[in-house]
Design a protein that fits this description.
Shape: globular
Organism: Sulfidibacter corallicola
Strand content: 15-25%
Number of strands: 10
Radius of gyration: 25 Å
Oligomer: single chain
Number of helices: 13
Order of helices and strands: EHHEHHHHEEEHHEHHEHEEHHE
Distance between the termini: 33 Å
InterPro entries: PDDEXK_AddAB-type
Domain PD-(D/E)XK endonuclease-like: 8-305
Structural class: alpha+beta
Protein name: PD-(D/E)XK nuclease family protein
Length: 338
């Protein structure tokens, strides 16, 4: 019997957004080189929080950040991200030195059947897989712990959390795979400070500013002094003060109902049936409304615009198996957690 294909939330979300994009990533296995080589700030913070929650060792967390951004002395982007990650984790530990829940599991993978909720029939083509950030216990109740990094948290952002399809799916599979009743999810949101380290001004910039001030002055003179680059220590102090502000770390709790999970089960079934139809027909239509989102072009737009250009793939993309987040790790003894 042919093995079933693994499906993840990311693949379903991509299929919903644009079927052509789903084909490029999950069937052709193409990843943009620029994105593949970039340091993922969100992934780093996930790693740092996993380390902190499991070991409660801040120096080890900070050492990990130092090693990730080893070229920060010469790379401005790395230096900016290093400052931000370091300040964020120091601020997080200061805000949450202890928790009101017990950590049951971190970065826990799962795999389970896709079931038609109306008939009980199990898909012969697909299985669903994923990885939860954390499972925690508060009193007698189990919750998913979901970490997010965000530029800002406002009413619209919180409203989106209440409609989070991904976490509803994960709650459904916690029951299917582990027999675990999930009461809800605790969203653990860390905001990215928008502060920038001042680079000061060059001699030429200073002279231009000084000349402009003199031109406006009635005396024909100016006492302006050249703005010097902000020191690392001064910038660290500003970031630390920012992360002392209440809105930089947000905890939001969302509860589930049986009806929510039943609806999600139906949505997963319907989506995988649509995916199966597309696969059988080898027809993955593009969604032209998704070519430009969040102020930038889709990473696969060049392929859609010039599919016969033989130089595009070797120049701008590399092949990478899908679902890399579920790749097998070195075997280790794993104690029961539930």
């Amino acid at each position: 019997m042919k093995p079933k294909t693994l499906i993840t939330y990311s693949q379903l979300a991509t299929f919903l957004s644009c079927r052509q994009k789903m084909r490029w990533r999950y069937i052709e296995e193409l990843v943009p080189l620029e994105r593949a080589q970039a340091l993922s700030f969100g992934s780093l913070i996930h790693d740092c929080l996993e380390s902190w929650h499991s070991q409660q060792d801040l120096p080890a967390v900070l050492d990990h950040i130092d090693r990730i951004y080893s070229d920060r002395a010469t790379d401005e982007k790395q230096r900016a991200d290093w400052h931000l990650a370091t300040a964020m984790m120091k601020g997080y530990v200061k805000r949450y030195p202890t928790e009101d829940f017990e950590i049951m599991a971190l970065e826990k993978k799962f795999e389970g059947p896709i079931v038609n909720p109306k008939s009980g029939r199990v898909s012969r083509s697909f299985r669903f897989a994923g990885k939860v950030d954390g499972i925690v216990k508060r009193g007698d109740d189990h919750f998913l712990l979901e970490t997010k990094t965000a530029s800002q948290v406002d009413a619209a952002y919180l409203e989106r959390l209440w409609r989070d399809f991904q976490i509803s799916i994960y709650s459904l599979y916690a029951r299917r795979v582990w027999g675990l009743e999930i009461k809800g999810v605790i969203y653990n949101v860390l905001c990215k400070a928008r502060l920038q380290q001042s680079r000061g001004e060059t001699e030429a910039e200073f002279e231009a500013r000084r000349a402009a001030l003199i031109a406006k002055s009635k005396t024909g003179r100016s006492s302006a002094k050249r703005r010097l680059p902000e020191s690392d220590e001064a910038f660290k102090d500003r970031l630390a003060a920012k992360y002392d502000e209440p809105g930089m770390f947000v905890r939001e709790e969302v509860l589930f109902t049986q009806g929510d999970l039943q609806q999600v089960a139906g949505e997963i079934w319907d989506l995988t049936q649509a995916l199966l139809e597309a696969r059988r027909a080898n027809a993955y239509l593009p969604n032209r409304g998704a070519c430009y989102q969040y102020g930038r072009a889709c990473a696969y737009l060049p392929l859609c615009q010039s599919p016969d250009n033989e130089h595009l793939i070797p120049t701008f993309y590399e092949r990478q198996p899908p679902h890399s987040e579920l790749a097998e790790e070195p075997a280790a003894a794993e104690a029961p957690i539930f």
